[in-house]
Structure to design on (722 residues):
């Protein structure tokens, strides 16, 4: 562990060095982010998951920097190019760009115009001109005449001067200070220019907003940058990111034109050439990469926040569910599930294929509800969803059974996946899809972990961003959510167990196999009998795994086995059993936490233990409440200006939020329409799965676009376009 990295990160995050060091040591020892956040608060000073993950990521970045630094030093050492001063500079470099700038003059490169000029022996001329002596001042042409050598390809003094200028241009382009100044200029005063490629107007109509677009890089939001980059990648747009050329050249000339002598004119020409041919394109490449990185980072952040809200959506819990995947021509696929999500029955009904078929469908639903004790009906929100909902609500059932619309985004991906085939090898994709809809209502988290997060349908430009960074961020979110909720080890799927702290695919598989062969786990200790699950994995995972109705009541809580002795001491001091202590507020009041503080256990852990004793194994998610769209509003043609409608937020982006109002097409609440105040970040106002009331402000039927507002007084009211 490098101390200077610890200090640097502590300064960046405004943390104490001991917090960063403790976190770094725990990570190095194999501890996971959720475990550190939940069970090592004394060591880290109660850092949360965000801070711990940030420390982890910064350590990785600094390790990459160190690795690159070592490779450069080794390269230079092997070639006897490493001086003490150069070595010192390399060790002091704090960023990758700074490191690469130092290395640039020594980096192997293809033959350049400057290389060729050096081969012709023109470097002394270049250095003499660049020096711009004033006393005595040299005449560049006279000086160049002495370098004429036809055998070397220098036929005239003009040829010599041209070669010298090429060398000067390269020297300027490799100058650390010059690169730093240009980097600042491009970052602070660069302008993104986007124009349409001639003849691509019709093909690229979706990029019309960017056919003639100019915007400072300092104000360009992530979604516009990603949109323009996509347009360029698809061959529709031409992009440039540059400051004013005059300003850039002036900065370089101020730095390198140090006198007013004949040689200075040659330097002026070389500097201008340097910017146009070398430094400008190099900096444009850098700023584009940096803008892409920043845009990726913002898009990934938004995606991660949306995913978290979706994963932590309120679960229905264990109910007998009838799940319906709606359709017109192909019918509606019905699946009946028990309270554990097991498929009991499936068949297809045709409520939209004529009166006779509709009547038969109603009878089937009535029969199945009675036969399988249906407690709630879940309908996917895809094609024919509202029409199917209307039919189902009109059916007379023996008891009042709630009908709920379920977001089926990703269900089709699951139905065709290896996971689905493993779960339901005998069923086709339609049956698997309807099962997924029902299970998603029962427990969104347990079902959504089976799907690639990118396929869930939240976020923006997820296919355009860096896929490695996206996967890492989304995996972090899934792991965080799974461990925050906790997992019932006796009912959880292999996929859900995979995300538990300290486990992974193989151990998850081994747990399921052990469970199948030996029956339900009776205690957390029994986990140690699972093949491959050693002390370290047990330490990391045990606190997040729940065993309900087991031998030890603490096994159903988030109290870690390493702290059981504390609870046992508390109960012994009170003269009661551990089971008596759970959920007994009067007994809790008698406990003095200070009495149980030790070298390893402090007040933060003791408070967590008391919280668990109050509500053991509590689910942090909100309570489920059924939602219903407005009656009679089932398709886009039903919408009228000024309508106020209930809706569910389905996606949050940098430019606003998409809301499902029950017409098969989500409407957009632009960021300017989210509130009666200025909104910088839509996530400050709305979250995925949030219930909202919106006003219809514009409907474009041909383009299937709906504009909505959440303002008290919407700013835009236009006619519905037919």
């Amino acid at each position: 562990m490098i101390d200077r990295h610890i200090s640097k990160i502590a300064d960046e995050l405004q943390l104490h060095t001991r917090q960063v060091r403790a976190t770094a040591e725990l990570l190095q020892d194999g501890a996971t982010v959720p475990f550190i956040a939940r069970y090592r608060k004394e060591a880290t000073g109660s850092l949360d998951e965000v801070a711990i993950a940030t420390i982890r990521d910064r350590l990785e970045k600094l390790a990459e920097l160190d690795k690159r630094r070592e490779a450069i030093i080794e390269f230079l050492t092997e070639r006897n190019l490493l001086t003490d001063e150069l070595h010192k500079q390399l060790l002091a470099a704090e960023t990758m760009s700074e490191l690469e700038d130092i290395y640039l003059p020594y980096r192997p490169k293809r033959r350049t115009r400057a290389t060729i000029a050096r081969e012709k022996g023109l470097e002394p001329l270049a250095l003499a001109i660049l020096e711009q002596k004033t006393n005595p001042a040299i005449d560049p042409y006279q000086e160049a005449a002495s370098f004429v050598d036809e055998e070397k390809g220098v036929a005239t003094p003009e040829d010599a001067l041209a070669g010298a200028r090429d060398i000067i241009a390269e020297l300027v382009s490799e100058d650390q200070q010059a690169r730093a100044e240009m980097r600042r200029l491009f970052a602070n005063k660069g302008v993104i220019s986007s124009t349409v490629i001639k003849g691509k107007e019709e093909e690229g109509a979706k990029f019309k907003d960017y056919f003639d677009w100019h915007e400072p890089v300092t104000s360009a939001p992530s979604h516009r940058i990603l949109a323009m980059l996509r347009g360029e990648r698809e061959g529709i747009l031409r992009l440039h990111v540059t400051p004013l050329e005059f300003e850039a050249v002036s900065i370089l000339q101020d730095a390198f034109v140090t006198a007013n002598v004949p040689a200075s004119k040659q330097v002026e020409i070389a500097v201008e050439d340097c910017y146009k041919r070398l430094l400008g394109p190099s900096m444009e490449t850098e700023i584009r990469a940096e803008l892409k990185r920043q845009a990726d980072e913002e898009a990934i952040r938004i995606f991660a926040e949306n995913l978290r809200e979706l994963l932590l959506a309120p679960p229905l819990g264990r109910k007998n569910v009838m799940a319906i995947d709606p359709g017109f021509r192909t019918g509606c696929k019905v699946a009946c599930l028990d309270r554990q999500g097991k498929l009991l029955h499936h068949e297809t009904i045709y409520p939209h294929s004529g009166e006779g078929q509709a009547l038969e469908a109603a009878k089937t639903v009535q029969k199945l509800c009675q036969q399988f004790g249906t407690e709630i009906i879940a309908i996917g929100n895809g094609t024919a969803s509202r029409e199917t909902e209307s039919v189902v609500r009109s059916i007379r059932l023996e008891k009042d059974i709630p009908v709920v619309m379920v977001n089926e985004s990703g269900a089709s991906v699951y139905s065709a996946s290896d996971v689905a085939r493993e779960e339901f090898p005998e069923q086709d994709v339609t049956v698997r899809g309807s099962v997924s809809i029902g299970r998603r209502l029962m427990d969104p988290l347990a079902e959504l972990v089976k799907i690639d997060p990118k396929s869930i349908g939240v976020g923006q430009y997820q296919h355009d961003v860096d896929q490695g960074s996206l996967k890492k961020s989304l995996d972090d979110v899934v792991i965080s959510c799974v461990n925050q909720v906790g997992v019932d080890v006796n009912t959880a799927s292999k996929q859900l167990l995979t995300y538990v702290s300290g486990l992974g695919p193989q151990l998850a598989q081994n747990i399921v196999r052990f469970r199948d062969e030996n029956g339900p786990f009776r205690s957390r200790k029994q986990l140690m009998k699972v093949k491959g699950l050693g002390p370290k994995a047990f330490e990391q995972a045990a606190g997040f795994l729940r065993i309900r109705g087991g031998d030890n009541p603490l096994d159903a809580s988030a109290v870690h086995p390493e702290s059981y002795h504390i609870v046992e001491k508390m109960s012994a001091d009170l003269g009661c059993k551990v089971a008596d202590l759970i959920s007994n507020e009067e007994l809790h009041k008698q406990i003095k936490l200070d009495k149980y503080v030790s070298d390893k256990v402090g007040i933060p852990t003791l408070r967590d233990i008391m919280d668990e004793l109050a509500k053991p194994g509590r689910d942090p998610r909100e309570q489920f409440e059924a939602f219903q769209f407005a009656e009679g509003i089932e398709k886009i043609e039903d919408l009228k200006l000024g309508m106020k409608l209930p809706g569910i937020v389905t996606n949050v982006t940098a430019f606003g939020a998409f809301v499902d109002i029950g017409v098969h097409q989500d409407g957009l609440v632009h960021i300017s329409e989210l509130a009666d105040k200025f909104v910088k970040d839509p996530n400050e106002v709305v979250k995925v799965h949030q219930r909202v009331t919106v006003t219809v402000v514009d409907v474009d039927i041909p383009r299937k676009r709906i504009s909505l507002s959440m303002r008290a007084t919407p700013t835009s009211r236009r006619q519905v376009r037919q």
